[in-house]
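Researcher: Re-running this chain for the archive, since the previous output was lost when a drive failed. Same request as before.
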Amino acid sequence: MEALVSPHWVVNNPDSDSIIILDATLKKTANKTSEIKGLVIQGAIYFDLDSTFSEPESDLPHTFPSALSIPSLLSGIGIRPDSTVVVYDQQGIYSAPRVWWMLKVMGIEKTYILDGGLPAWLDAGLGISESYARPKVNRVCDFDIKPEQIVDKSTVLKNITTPHFMLIDARPSERFSGRQAEPRAGLRCGHIPGSISIPFSEVLNNGHYKSPESLAEIFNRNGLNDNDELVFSCGSGVTACIVLLAAYLAGFKKLRIYDGSWAEWGADESLPLDLE
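Model: Regenerated structure tokens:
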């Protein structure tokens, strides 16, 4: 199933009136990104990754909510298992892939990303608003959640000595090598032993994803092929999803996220790391 859609796909879709549009913009990010102040796509609902859709019992940022709480959270913004959802963010491509992945984990198959985000929508001259729409609350539904798509630190630790998957780090290369300090206080510098650096910026071009052929070349030159099982990490599980979706577009199928990412690994002095 295609993951990326254009602005005109959204407005010209025969079922456009029933499409749920989610703005996944993070108000604060560890990476320097721009935000278009005061403008949202007409009819869009805000998807709050920082608080509402982050596990409140976790000390880590952007942690996937518990299986007990997320069905009611999704129903609270009108999402059902059979919903058609389009996700975007104000940067072009930044936090939207995290929400796309979360909804896929919840079994919502008709989930798409607006390639180019709000800038692409503005370039197309389509309807905008200065405020978010009010969601239509549904009764709580049963979702076909796929918890196996989320990897914990014990699984990553075991994989160092007994490899079963390739770990891809989406942070900028300077942070991966340890030459640049982490933006979050209290975190060590470096990377998880055995991991491969594919910075999220490498898979993008001016706020859009590169072509599937170009994406496949990026993975291939890192010694990866589409039969490999890949797990993705970053600072807090957000930009990891950018590279996960790039792998999906390139034809990879076995894709998971280490949800704790470097926010967890870098804070734990008992866990190994490599530099350079």
